[in-house]
Automatic annotation (TrEMBL):
Keyword Hydrolase: yes
PROSITE patterns: PNPLA
Gene Ontology biological-process entries: lipid catabolic process; proteolysis
GO molecular function: metal ion binding; metallopeptidase activity; ubiquitin-like modifier activating enzyme activity
SUPFAM superfamilies per UniProt: Activating enzymes of the ubiquitin-like proteins, FabD/lysophospholipase-like, JAB1/MPN domain, UBC-like
Pfam family, one: Prok-JAB
Renumbered ranges of motif DGA/G: 1026-1028
Active-site positions on this chain: S824 (nucleophile), D1026 (proton acceptor)
PNPLA domain span: 789-1039
The protein's name: Thiamine biosynthesis protein ThiF
PANTHER family referenced in this protein's UniProt entry, alphabetically: NEUROPATHY TARGET ESTERASE/SWISS CHEESE D.MELANOGASTER, SLR0060 PROTEIN
Keyword Zinc annotated: yes
Amino acid sequence: MMNSEQKLAIDQIQRVAKQSDALEVINVISSEKSDSFVIVDLSLYCGDLVGADGGFPIKERERVRVLIGPDYPYAPPSVASSHTRFAGYPHVNWKRWLCLYLAPQTEWSPRNGMFGFLERLELWLRRAALGELDETGGPIHPPVTYSSKGPLLIPRSDTPNVDGEPWLGFANLKQISPDRIDLVGWARDEELAETAGVAILLDAPMPLEFPSKLNELIECIADRGVSVESVFELLRKAAESNSSDTPLFVVVGTPMRGTKGKELKQHLTGWRVDTLLNKIASLDGDLLQDRRVANANDLSDWSASIDEHRGRLMELFADWSKEADITWCRVREDRPEIVTRRDNGKPVSWFSGRNLELWGCGALGGYIAEWLVRAGAAKIILRDEGVVTPGLLVRQPFHDEDIGTFKAEALAARLRKISPSCQIETSTKDVIECPLGNPGECTDCDLIIDATASNIVLSKLESVWRSSAGIRKRIASVAIDREAERLLVGIAKPEHSGGPLDILRKMKLKACKDGTLKRYLDAFFPENPPVPFQPEPGCSDATFIGSAADAASLSSLAVNFIGRALSEDLCESTGFGAYMSDACAETIAPPFVKFEFSPDHCVQDPESGFETRIAASAWRSIKSWKADSARRRGADVETGGLLFGELDELLKVVWVTEVSGAPSDSIHSAEEFVCGINGTTQLNDSITDQSRRSVQFVGSWHTHPVSPAIPSGKDLAAMDRLLVQSPVPSERQLLLIIGHASTSMETGAFIFQRKEFESLRRSGQLSRQIAISESPSLRPDLLPSIGLSLSGGGSRAMAFHLGCLRALNDRGVLDRVQVLSTVSGGSVIGAMFAFSNTPFEEFELDVRAALRRGFAKGLVRRTLLSLRLFQILGTWIFSGVPANMTFATRFILGRANSLVPKDSRAGGTVAQSLQPPFRRWVNRTNALEQTFADLLFGETKVAQVARDGLDVVINATELRTGTAFRFGNRESGCWRFGTIENNDVSVARAVAASAAYPALLPAIDTVLQYSHGSSDGESKRTILTDGGVYENLGISCMIPGRDKAFSTNVFSPDYIVCCDAGPGQFSDTVMPYGWGTRMMRSIETTFRQVQHGLQKQIHMCRENRELKGFVYSYLGQQDARLPIRPPELVTRDQVTHYPTDFFAMSNTDIELLSQRGEQLTRLLIDHYCPEL
């Protein structure tokens, strides 16, 4: 009796048969039983199938039988041919049954029913006719054996090479359980293990369907070059080697495993020999035993009986093999040459075959250990002195029976069950005692994972890191927060300047300066630590609140991150860090933030035993302040400033993290530098608060421009005064001297104590050891890509940007800028820089001269005192008058159209089609273009950038389409029109278009020849105005994710430095009373809202880690909101009053605007992107 699903299947088959003559239903057979199969005989038209050599012999019509089971559609139907013509071909079992699905769980869809089944059958037949059932690169259908009664055989060792002839020998076996045998190796006679099976590896394929009788199998093997006698001899030797109660196994291999088109591997099958064959083999063993006890005189008699004895055995073997069934083993492959690990290519692949140490076997360490073992680690040393207690079973991977045992021992027992091949060792000593107490005992491992979450271990490890090379290995430290919602991972490679504590310190400082990471900062480095959670108050250690699921989830994140970071193995990164969170628990902070760290420059002070670690960002700041001083005072004048970081007396390490310039009361001269103290207390307080006390005043630095980095008597006197007047009273302070040897810069770091100067004042002498090291230099291949944008704002923008460029140049960033994008006033100074290759000092002089001169007079002169005046008048007559008439006509038609019923209106369409007939070919903006050409750029084209490696984008706005129009050295154009053919545009024209402020200057109206993709060139009337109309910051061409199909000049820098010369918030002194002031303020408000949206977009890109960093140097920045306020800051109120124009500028205004730009840019890079 058919069930409802089977009835549906028959109905679907009959519906297909009615629609096509290619399918004919011959018969449907069902039983009265409710749980029986339904049989459907079908005839299929195959006359249109294309055949090929090696394909199945398919006839014009093929009959098949389909079996639809009672569990259909949750099990696919079976199908068999009505003949044995397909026997011996791949994917045909038992000579008739067609194997349609290699993986039914994924390939069979119950929802598609018999429609999908018939489509699959047709596809199978088409591929079979072509001989393409095994596709190139796809898995070959292996030979099959049909039994699941035998024991489980797991091959774990790759087979020997079989080349030209069969390989005969033995399989070394290991009995795991009564029903499981592992194949652990291959051997000849002399290499037999305690348990050996016969191994026959053929060099020719076997039939796709193995025989079910032993004599048939032996005949198949004999046909492939292995005689019956050889088989028997192998059986005899194996039986002799094994103990009497050990079953005898035979393993047969044939080269039929792998993917089509590649070298095939051995497909292994195995069977267990029953007791009769064991008896025959043991009889032969008795004969050998007789030989052993025979004396030498009787040996000839023994030898004479061998042939007769062997003949009798062979007869018994032959008779038995005809009747014996083969008890096939269930083979489950685990050979590396066959099995692709299910975690292949995943981050945990890094751990495969590695020797590892794990410190801490608790909530995190217990799960981490399991992930490492499952990843294929070769060896793991577990270190933990703790004991399993009842409360730990809530979340640590132990059993009730483990209570009272050492965690390391209990965990080791569990891991050995998961992977017996992994070598597990344990230590129940305190990690502080071993290995940190004796680093010489540290094993030679590939990675140490510290899961102790112990500050004591971190500190001890950092101390040992300095003193012992034995502990300098890859070390990862992992910790979770109090609520088990967030994870912290730090990784230090051997070549890093410090251990995991150093990495975690750097991660803390990153979080202090990134508001999006505040939740991580509060979780791992809280200002006010919360009340600790003690599960058993008074008698248990403080711990986190979390479940086993929390611990397992976070530990898996840690292992994946460690594996990924070490797999990438970026040569320039010696340390890695990551904040991660449970996606279900975190809704605001980013769920994953990764950091890469380079080593600090380390300088030793042999007198004090301290090591000074100077961050690369601190070196860049020192370089910047040196350049600033050389520009202001001369290269031979000493300069210096203050150092901020952390001094750890226990570790004897001084971290130098931030650097300031000289306080205002400092003394600079060629003979000495005396560091002042004005404003240092406020500066130190600000830095200390922002870093949550991880960065504070630690000393001072200064230069010796023409002498070695050795402290002079004047240096010591200045250091003595600074110790007394220091903003942070301390017993020790650092003096860092940057001197000059004959060919390079050198550095000396000296830790002075107060008592040294007390001795100096008494005796007049100070004796100490010194060590000088070469100063570091940045490798060019480690530098990130940087985009720089210069906003509009007329001469105000030029002066402000001059200071920004100066700060970038002092820091060494300007020469590394890869993309320079400019708008309006920013385009003038940006083009002056990009299209000249003069040194920055000459460039600055040129900019100052241009600002003092201004461009307004030149514009007036080239407008009123030249032939251009008559050209402008002529343009107004021949173009402007018709344009005004067009506007009037459109107005009249529009008014008339409003009087007509809506259904009859046509005038609106006509009015819209009326446009100014002639372009404005000459106007005042052309005079500005000529001014720029005469004074600055000449006939230079935009493709002729003078600075190597720099791409330039000069932004304008195309008014017809309302799109961005970008002039660039790569291409110029807009996405609506395409790109200008041959990019034949002068720099003067591009800058004039970018600076054509619409309230004062008309747009450039021209005709340009464009190409759009592969299409032919096309002329387009193009109307260009100020780039600030579309976007005044100039950053849109660098925003991540832009599509080249809808934009020109697309760039994706790692960092963006945006210099905005906008005045900031509106002054509330303006009263927009009249129409003009109302409209002006309304336009400005709309414009600013658009700009705020762009600012938010770029900040979101940074928060989403689409950018590595973003610096926004904003003239109108509210000073109170600066992260740090320098003592001599040019305030916002001093500069924001300056108008947007191109009139001549005074030296005072130039100096104030440029100084603010320099101060803000230097300050913000130091704070937000110190890595630049």
